[in-house]
Amino acid sequence: MGIIKRALTLILSAVLLLGGLVLGVSATDLPFTDADQISNTEAVAVMNAVGVFQGSGGAFSPAGILTREQAAKIICYMLGGQEEAEAISADEYLFTDVASTRWSAPYIAYCVKNGILSGDGSGKFDPEAPLTGGAFAKMLLVALGYDPSIEGYTGSDWILNVASTALALGIAPQNMNLLEALNREDAAQMCYKTLVCDMVRYKSVNEIFTDRPAVGKVEGYYENDYNETRDGVQQFCEAYFPELRLVTAYDNFGRPGRGWLWSGKTVYYVAHTPVAILTSRTDADTLAVDLSGYFLRDRSLYAVNKRISNTQNVSFNANLNLTFVGPENTTAQSSVAIVGRTTADFLAELTGNGCQVELYADEKNVITDVVVLRYAVDTVTGITIAPGKIAYTVGGTSYLDYQSGYGTDTVVVDRPIKVGDTVTYTVAGGVAYLYSTAQVKGTLTAVAGDTLQISGLTYPLGGGVAGVPDLTVEDQGVFCLDQFGNVVDLRTDTRTTGYANVVNAAGIYTPADQELGLPAVGPAVTVTVVTATGSSGQYQAALHTLTAADLGRGERTAANAPTVRLEPGDVVIRNTDLLVYDASAGDATAAQLTASAAAGLKTVWLYVLEGNEITFLPLSQVGTDMREYTPYLATDVDVTALRGANVMDGYVLNLDSNTGYVTYDMVTGLGFRYGSTDLPQGLSGLEHAQVVVLAGGTSQGSALVVFLDHT
Predict the structure, then answer these.
(1) What pLDDT, in 10s, does the model give residues 640-651?
(2) Cα-Cα-Cα-Cα dihedral of 669, 670, 673, 677, to 10°?
(3) Is the pTM of the predicted complex or chain greater than 0.85?
(4) How many CB atoms lie within 10 A of CB 265?
């Protein structure tokens, strides 16, 4: 099946391509410590699997420059495989700067004898000199069977002739400067492209038109067909890597794609691009218009393919891979009976609000695969953090996320979640995919079919999601929205309290645009917090508009703008003097104030969380006047120095078995809580911790929670 390059030109609200979907490229993880720096992942994965490109010290070094002797080794591995290449010996003394005992001498000798490489004409080879892209392209062309003397790959014009052929075959990318030094990643890409090029051999001289042999494909070859096309032409990989295969493959969701196999093992997989994704209930008339250029294949021998239409009922067996994926199970069938209905009606029945339907087609616009992803809504009932892994419990089952990389993950989380959160999820191949929900606080004022009105705003009901509760007018609370914007749950008790470290905060303010009629956005402050339990999440900080009663008789200035006096009408972060909007200055300073107020929140607070709104209450700093049973905050504490005498700035800080240690991973967005007995070795941040202390007297206290430096 080919990759579809044509998508629907008309995308209605029911046919959406959303960034949050479980979609896209899926590749076998590369076994290199610098895998995140590799762009040509498919090429590197395949060339590594066949043994041509290896790393050093666990790294691939994609930007490393290829040398002449390294290129010689690569070509030998391309032509003989690892076992044969390593058996080559240097039986002749060829160059003054290449000793017979040098590691690369056998490879250089082989390439020189076969016209693939040559010296500089003075008896030297210069093995450690950088190799250009053009020189490497020449080596690959010779490996394919091109004769360098016949094709003009020698002499003053060699680079022009090499570039012409290499570009035509796709070995050299169009944007590559073949005169520049070649890096390892681009070299791997060129080798990968060579794998699927046709091998060549020279035909007899045609004296009428030319005095040189004509180059042609190695035809009449049907063995080791790498891509199951039986084209009768031998490609490079069929000649030298007969165990390499490119096949149609399917991922855990039943999505079609292409997969490279080496000795029967998948080394790379990439999903095909769907021609349409439907995430809401879509009627047959809409599908008939949007998919009018597509067909379903009739399994009957001489039947005509059926166009996607809503005008005529048909009855036939469709040659279609139909896969249903859901939390309970996955089912698949390769033939679908469509009886007495239109083709558009058949597809429309598969859709639903919150249900994700993906359509895949071949190069003839015949729909070959339909994947239906069904989700359920539920509450996260447990998050257990253990050394090296996190267990998420949802729907009565626990799923593991290994932080160390030593286990196979059975859960994928779209963003940080905590116990008690409402999520939507599906399960494919034993792996749970969890999606956090957005929250809207309000009252349900109207219901019309699958459309809800909540406090004046309209939302679709997620009727295609399992577990959605029955909702009636006058229901009020926090409504949860799935990743597609559908209402999937109602929460009436969402108030939680505790201690939290604000690890990130961003201020938002955009003034109104009178010319375009756009209202102001903000002021608002979005915060990322990690709580004393180790859970983490992103919320909106509660704001407050000051009144005369709030200010009293004394004069107060903004904590983030000491020259600005607080006045009635100013907007601050609730319970603080962090100013986000100066009523007297208006838009002139709002963006700057909002940003500086957000920065001022990055510390530890007592918090109250209701829905998506978090209210902060400041903690007093530890001092000699601590009141018993009152929580205080000690900042920038070196916890390692307290393990002995436990004395800090004149007061006693007790670190005992009740103390929790919380850190935050900025990369994964997840918080972690450890007890004093399971602290991992080498845990960072202990030198600059923030500690919530419960005062036991004026000069001592016990650490309730130690928030470690997350930077």
Answers:
(1) 777 555 566 667
(2) -100
(3) no
(4) 10
